[in-house]
Write a structure and sequence with these properties.
Layout: H1 5-17, H2 20-26, H3 31-45, E1 50-53, E2 56-59, H4 61-89, E3 93-99, H5 108-118, E4 122-126, H6 134-139, E5 145-149, E6 157-171, E7 192-195, H7 205-210, E8 219-222, H8 226-234, E9 239-243, H9 248-252, E10 257-260, E11 266-275, H10 283-299
């Protein structure tokens, strides 16, 4: 190898912080020392990593490829060191988890009790920011395991099926659609529909329910927090299409009513997604296995 770990750390820091000076501060180096380190890396590789543009530095195409690799190498090495230290010192293992899109944790307390019976040495940390930018947060090791609704794949990631759910129309108990056995897409033509995302993702309601029927609701409002959508719908300020499992507490409390989409309903699969480079018996993979078992047993 032509580059040392210090060079890979430099590349990641420069890309993360956008300038030589801020990267130097992050690495506890002077700007001059980091400039020499960059020059050393370019000399070893035989070509420029950055090009000067005014007072700034712009990545060359080859430098861009190198930096992308740095974003995988440095977190992977940090995880390996952390894993070794934890194992060597017999300290508790930490697994950082999140829930994509919904940020729903009504299931967590019961699951943690179950997990302690199986792996008392594993501790769970909730990463709320994992509800957005799931793929990026996983690959950058900001989170280890994310519960994700719907189809989800990507390079460097492993997807494990957890349980079956349904997408349902959610209304206030007093809404005119609340008493229907099920709805068709046409029933939403004159409704104000609240949604948490601006994009029409494959496998969700627009792709499988509205578009095949050629239906676009009169008003669609983007409310980026599902918790806010729940409050607005319960106040009869619109309707929404959401995961039944994710809003279960509000349904059980009678604040909302769930109505199936079409006579057959619209199924929704939830998966646990982790990094592909997790070792076979890593704490993260152990948590995935326990989650699969727990969701299977609690859904029977």
């Amino acid at each position: 190898m032509k580059l040392d770990i210090k060079h890979w750390q430099m590349l990641k820091a420069m890309d993360d912080f956008g300038s030589l000076s801020r990267a130097a501060t992050q690495l506890n180096l002077s700007q001059s020392a980091l400039s020499h380190r960059l020059a050393e890396a370019e000399r070893r590789l035989g070509g420029p990593i950055f090009q000067r543009q005014g007072r700034g530095l712009i990545l060359t195409p080859a430098g861009t490829s190198l930096t992308q690799v740095a974003h995988h190498i440095v977190p992977a090495l940090m995880r390996a060191e952390d894993s070794f230290v934890q194992t060597a010192s017999e300290v508790e293992h930490l697994v950082k988890i999140g829930v994509a899109a919904y940020n729903s944790y009504h299931w967590l307390a019961e699951f943690l009790q179950h997990l302690r019976l199986k792996y008392s040495h594993i501790q769970i940390e909730v990463v709320a920011s994992a509800s957005a930018h799931t793929r990026q947060n996983l690959l950058q090791a900001k989170v280890d395991l994310v519960l994700v609704p719907g189809p989800f794949t990507g390079p460097g990631l492993d997807t494990h099926h957890l349980f079956k759910d349904q997408l349902v129309l959610v209304t206030a108990p007093t809404h005119c659609l609340a008493k229907q056995t099920w709805i068709e897409a046409q029933d939403l033509l004159d409704e104000e529909v609240l949604t948490y995302g601006r994009d029409a993702y494959p496998g969700f309601e627009y792709d499988r329910f509205m578009r095949p029927a050629g239906v676009t609701p009169r008003v669609v409002k983007v409310i980026e927090m599902v918790g806010a959508i729940v409050e607005l719908v319960s106040a009869d300020q619109g309707v929404s299409i959401l995961s039944r499992w994710a809003i279960e507490p509000s349904l059980n409390a009678g604040r909302l009513v769930a109505v199936p989409l079409s006579e057959k309903g619209l199924d929704l699969s939830w998966s646990g997604v982790c990094r592909q480079d997790e070792l076979a018996h890593s704490p993260t993979r152990d948590v995935v296995k326990v989650l699969q078992q727990w969701f299977y047993e609690t859904s029977i």
